[in-house]
Amino acid sequence: MTARRASGNVALETALFIPILLLLIVGTVQIGKLAYLDYTLRKIVYAAARQVAVQQSINFCDVADDQTAQTALNFALNDTTGTPIVANLTALQLTTQCTDPNNLGGAMIPCDTSNCDSLTVAGRPDFVTVSIPNGYVVNVLIPFLSPIPITLNPSVTVPFGGVS
Question: What is the per-residue pLDDT for 130?
Answer without folding.
Answer: 93
